[in-house]
Design goal:
The chain is globular, with a radius of gyration of 21 Å. The chain has one domain (about 5-80, about 140-330). The chain contains 14 helices and no strands. The relative contact order is 0.15. The protein is an all-alpha fold. The chain has helices at about 10-30, 40, 45-65, 75-105, 120-125, 140-150, 155-165, 170-190, 200-220, 230-245, 250-270, 280-285, 290-310, 320-365. Helix 1 (about 10-30) packs antiparallel against helix 3, helix 1 (about 10-30) packs parallel to helix 13 and helix 10 (about 230-245) runs antiparallel to helix 11 (about 250-270).
Amino acid sequence: MNDAAHIRSLTSLRFFAALWVVLFHYFPLLTGDEARPGLVAKGYLGVELFFVLSGFILCHVYRTGLEEGRFKYGAFLWARLARVYPLHIATLVGLGAVAVAAGVAGFSVDPNILSWASLPAQLTLTQAWGFAPVAGWNHPSWSISAEWFAYLTFPAFAWAVLKLKDRPLVAVGAAIALLWALYAGFQAAAGFPLTQATIHWGALRIVPCFFYGCALHALWRARPARNQGQTLAGALISGAAALTFAALGAPDAMIVTSLGGLIFFLARLAQTGSPILAQAPLVYLGEISYSVYMICVPWKIVFGNAATRIFQLSHGHLTPALWLVLLVGVVPLAALSYHLIEKPARAGMKLMAEARATRRPSAAHA
């Protein structure tokens, strides 16, 4: 993403989305059971925040190209694959190696981690499309599979929003209506919330959020911010509403709607030149947020098993000090993952695309 397309506050927001998910996964190791306090209990909605952000940012980066006929679907998919696939494969291989080593060393290993029947879906990023029999390997990667579904269908989302670009409020209203209706309908039909779907129906889970993000971008672009004070108030109200609703255990649709409002007003604040959430350390944490998300469960497995063996913990949970090491430790590990795997692999795939583009005119001339 170039500087003109970079809304720094939204990059920072990605870290808080990842942290929310991490707390959801890690909290049971502190208490020894699955009980979580209200705000942490809704941590699975950090994925929804990622999904809405994804729709908003992709429209921000690619909408002009779509309108001017410069959008190249193949190049778009390659760029998105470069963004998510190398780290996905690295965590898959790494977790597989750890599981094998742990088994040899006598540690208990969840047999689903090395689910060979699920491997084809993992490799093709279709594990959230109902093609994986179990939630094997690195379970958080289900959401990357859902993202891949949204990338493949992005032109359809963009077309729908562009049809309503002169009526952005209608687009946002339609997206919110779809979100609420789909959540209610899925709950009634499936017996569990869509926001808790992973390898089964995970691809459907991204649809209302991604469309909501696309629609919010249309409104943001059509109605640029002019008053920083009013925009700040909107961001504070949206953020406070999302936190309050989550802490009180409100319906997920209500929380996700509020999170969309927060994204919209933070993006509007950026239009006014506000420095809120635009500080370099926060932006950096946002840049490594994908690594935070992808390694949080492998790190939990490794650290939890090692701490249990070393400190002879028989009660099934970590001490507060060990739990803090677990929580804080995910950040430097994510930074290493980002600089050693994610960033260079993305750059390498970009160079591959540029090399192909350079050879293509020469081949045509010959």
